[in-house]
Specification:
- The chain has helices spanning 23-31, 42-61, 72-92, 109-116, 133-136, 142-149, 160-174, 201-208, 211-224, 242-255, 277-297, 314-323, 339-345, 377-389, 392-408, 411-432, 439-451, and strands spanning 8-10, 35-37, 98-102, 121-125, 154-157, 178-179, 182-184, 189-194, 228-235, 263-270, 305-309, 326-329, 353-357, 370-372.
- The chain has a six-stranded mixed sheet, sandwiched between helices. A six-stranded parallel sheet has the order 11-10-9-12-13-14, with helices on both faces. A two-stranded parallel ribbon has the order 1-2.
- Helix 6 packs across helix 7 (160-174), helix 10 runs parallel beside helix 11 (277-297) and helix 10 packs across helix 14 (377-389).
- A hairpin with a 2-residue loop joins strand 6 (178-179) and strand 7.
- The termini are far apart.
- The chain is of the alpha/beta class.
Length: 471
């Protein structure tokens, strides 16, 4: 965002009640970095973020309806938080500014802004999946959220599947027709399009070639001792499929004893939502399963799994990407999953194989990876064996195609494509708007009508030329 004349609005992470005296100072310091704070109290964050965003929207949109809770008070907090963000945008918005709203935390904001501002240009991008109608309709506030999103000129998604689900929901729940990705509402026309998010490719590829990463690689080689390395990197979340992946790895060792002591599976889990009961339970289950697998298959001097429960420094992460022979990325459901792309970008001097579940959004782009059904243990086991036995020539060919694609469509290209498409909506909105004929044009039309031998009048239904009433 610093590469253009822009302002980033967000919660600065402090309790509004504790910042009254310092609020102006905080605002001025953030403005120096092109940021503008939206202050929320800790109670608002708990109700809005923890109890609605994380406990309602997140599980439902990731196809875990059994985990979703529906609290009216949490919904009210979500509405209030969106209004607070709306107030902040109104404070700093100037005529001609484009507004780009991000993610499921602010799905009511586009409509709120359209009601408060004069002819604003608004884009919205959803970074998580948009679920099918049968899942989405379980949400008690389904129509309010759809109406909120319909306030945007452009709504973007990672994949065509998500966009199609959104179009279906607006049709069946709101009754809005769509054509060529444009939804016609009572007072707006919203364009729906797909923008698969990329990564900063050169950052990963460039870092992978540095001396610092070379030193990290040497340390890893001393520990791995020429063993094959399988790697997975996830945030702690039930959507990531970590337990099923561990089960599949255990089955692989059981069915392929020749690979014991010849490979190491590095499992990196980054802590998330510490203190939430469901996540604490998942952490305990992972700990127990890793211990069980190491206890069952390990030997003196060899543990099948290296388990790292923390965030690791960027050079160390890139070194792991670069050293790993196989990346095993199998989320149960993921909006995109950029780890898969980061792994591929970091493979600058050695081949590698990506195993990716078909329910990750990035699977739509990375078809040269080994695509698996995360619910099919045999599928994952077979993919692991294929990856470890794949010839170096085939690995390099697959990697070459994937890297060329990722190098072309980076995160900067993703952002620019979205902004360009958003700005393009102005033109077609003007073209589709009503135009009043000038006096000369009216005279020509009347003259042509009077001189014509046969005449045909086409009057569109309800609102094009005149309101329609059955009374």
């Amino acid at each position: 965002y610093k590469t253009s004349d822009s302002l980033w609005l967000g919660w600065p992470g402090i309790d509004r009640k504790n910042s009254n005296a310092d609020r102006e100072e905080i605002t001025q310091r953030l403005l120096q970095d092109h940021c503008y704070p939206v202050f929320l109290s800790q109670r608002e964050v708990d109700e809005y973020y923890n109890k609605f965003c994380s406990a309602t929207i997140w599980p439902l949109f990731h196809y875990f309806p059994q985990y979703a809770t529906y609290s009216p008070s949490a919904w009210q907090a979500y509405e209030r938080a969106n209004r607070t963000f709306c107030d902040a945008v109104v404070d700093v918005w100037q005529q001609g500014d484009a507004i780009w709203v991000h993610d499921f935390h602010l799905m009511l904001l586009p409509r709120m802004l359209r009601e408060r501002l004069q002819d604003p240009l608004i884009g919205f991008f959803l970074h998580i999946p948009f679920p099918s109608l049968e899942i989405y309709r379980l949400l008690p506030w389904r129509t309010q959220i759809l109406e909120g999103l319909m306030g945007a000129d452009l709504v973007g998604f990672h994949t065509w599947d998500y966009a199609a689900h959104f179009l279906t929901s607006t049709r069946y729940l709101l009754g809005y027709d769509s054509s060529m990705g444009r939804i016609t509402g009572p007072d707006t026309i919203t364009k729906v399009d797909v923008f698969p998010m990329g990564i900063d490719y050169e950052r990963f590829a460039g870092t992978a070639s540095t001396r610092e990463v070379d030193r990290e690689i040497k340390k890893l080689e001393e520990s791995f001792q020429s063993r094959r390395v399988i790697l997975s990197v996830d945030r702690l979340d039930y959507t990531k499929g970590i337990l099923r992946r561990l089960e599949a790895f255990s089955t692989f060792l059981e069915e392929n004893p020749d690979y014991r002591e010849k490979l190491t599976y590095v499992v990196v889990v980054v802590p998330s939502r510490i203190g939430v009961a469901r996540y604490a339970l998942l952490k305990r289950q992972i700990d127990e399963m890793v211990g069980a697998i190491n206890g069952k298959y390990g030997s003196i001097g060899w543990a099948p799994i290296w388990y790292i429960y923390r965030a690791i420094p960027f050079p160390s992460l890139v070194a792991l990407y670069r050293r790993a022979d196989v990346a095993l990325i199998t989320p149960l459901r993921d909006g995109m999953n950029l780890v898969a792309k980061e792994y591929l970008a970091s493979k600058v001097d050695r081949p590698g194989v990506l195993i990716l579940s078909e329910t990750a959004g990035s699977a739509k782009e990375l078809s040269e990876a080994l695509i698996v059904n995360v619910n099919n243990t045999d599928d994952i086991v077979a993919a692991l064996k294929e990856a470890l036995q794949m010839s170096e020539a085939e690995q390099e060919e697959r990697l070459r195609i994937l890297q060329r694609r990722l190098r072309r469509y980076t995160v900067k290209r993703w952002a620019q494509d979205f902004i360009d498409t958003l700005e393009g909506t102005v033109k077609w909105r003007e073209e589709m708007g009503a135009h009043i004929l000038g006096a000369q044009a009216r005279r020509r039309m009347i003259k042509s009508y009077q001189q014509a031998q046969r005449r045909l009048l086409l009057l569109d239904y309800d609102g094009m030329l005149a309101p329609f009433s059955t009374r």
